[in-house]
Amino acid sequence: MLAAKNIVIELLSAVIWGTAIGLLMAITANSFVYLVVVATEYRTSFTLLEFQIQGQTYSLSSIFSLLAAATLISAIRKFLDIKNWEGIADSIYVAHRENPEIDTRKGLGSTFASLVVISGGGSVGQYGPLVHFGSTIGLFIKNFFKLKMSPDIFIGCGVAAAIAAGFNAPLAGILFAHEAILRHFSLRAIAPISIASFSASAFGEYFFGNAPTLFELSQQAPPLNEVLPILILLGPAFAIITVCFMVALRAANKFAALNERHKTFLPFIAALICGSVGVFFPEILGLGIGAINDLIAGNISLIKVSMLLIAKISMTALCIGFGLFGGIFSPALFIGVSAGSLAAGFFAAVGYPDLAQVIIISGMAAVAASVIGAPITSVLIVLELTGSYEYGVAAMVAVIVSSLVTYRTFGLSFFDRQLLDRGIDMRQGRESIALSQRLVTSCEHMDFVKLAAGTTGREAYQLMKDAGAVESYVINEAGEYVGKLDIFGAISASEKPIEEFLLKEPTILVADDSLQTAMAKTIDFVGESIPILSRDKKFLECVVSEGSIFQAVIDVQNSVSKIGRA
User: Fold this and answer.
1) How far apart are CA 444 and CA 294, in angstroms?
2) Burial grade of 559 (CB within 10 A; 0-12, 13-18, 19 or more)
3) Are strands 56-59 and 50-53 parallel, antiparallel or unpaired?
4) pTM of the model
5) Which is more confident, 133 or 423?
6) Which superfamily does CATH assign the domain made up of 438-561 to?
């Protein structure tokens, strides 16, 4: 009976909370897109700032709208006291932490900031901020209602719902949450995450109507045997473009970090430059969905496509690096379509015009997959948004090759590289991250013999004998740590003071050492106990045994393995 009751409770929890998160993300994502569309229509229809050159009409509205956006997000940053915006990299890291926490204020502020920037015409995307918002909402619900389900399940629900609502692709949402964020599959996680993803898509359709087709295709996919060799050849080319994009993003971030004193002015510099480029290349501004469809349809000349590719890479890097916050997934789609268009133009010129759209879609999927580190999700997005199995299979070829080359030359994803720049190596896995977060002071402490400076060897020997210990620690009158004495040193000291007989360079740990660091430091340790000193190494905080360190590591390993088995 008890087992049946637990199963019912678990199912009800999955349905209730998965549906609730799906509803919240459906409203948030669709409202986000609606506001961006309204703002874009207003910005592009503003005729007072238009001028003409050689019969072509241009508008300065992008400069003023982006400067206004920079002003507003600077106010948001100051009002909410946000030092750095947060995105998908933070969601990944939080999902792998032993005690996950997300600053709700930062999550909401970052999402609103991205809405402002995209509405102003910034060359950034929406999906990254929405994904982080989803993980923020999921974890907030978990903590606010003090629910028993694992925190990473709630994070996965929010992430899956964000992708499902944003793309109207529920299967891709489920897979993205597992593949890119959680990076493990479990039966207990799949149920609530699936419910959140499908309900987000369903609620989006119910309240906001059927989402329009994102990609408009007019060509049938050719037989795989015709396009396979071409896509294998193009995979490395797409990877090179992807790496250039991610290197540009990192370079802009590094430049901004080196000019921390001028951080307040950087968003305005980015707004002025991006807005000025947008005067002549308005396609790169905002989400660029219309431009993507024009590229797929072949309505833009190859010369202009080349210029758009360069402009999109450089302006997205500039905006994000200089503080005009947003995502990189939508820009990756644009860059991939542009790269695919150039490749399609080349093969059309040598006699393969019927392969144009499958090459373009494959380029889009390859670049996006390599940027976000989710190749299977990218292929599934193609399947769901094109409704074509043939396009999905063809895209998989380019995705696999591009992802492999990108991984070998840059890393699994841009987000993993962001974390690596912060000293967090996701390649080592959840267990390593958990060990790096657990402090060695959490290990079980042991009693120890404390000796005063000036104690003789005979006195020290007797104290250790009475305590049944073979090691002791010397503390001076100021309470500071002096050193470690073993029983052999006490015997050698005899009637002399023990200071001259202390162990030379004994193994020590510091209070802010992690279990991972402690394991590395004690790999060659031989002895009874290990002292843990204060951060300044002046005072003895506590003493632990090697066994207690091993036990703490085993506890972490068991905790991590339970997540994978859940």
Assistant:
1) 64
2) middle
3) antiparallel
4) 0.87
5) 133
6) CBS-domain (3.10.580.10)
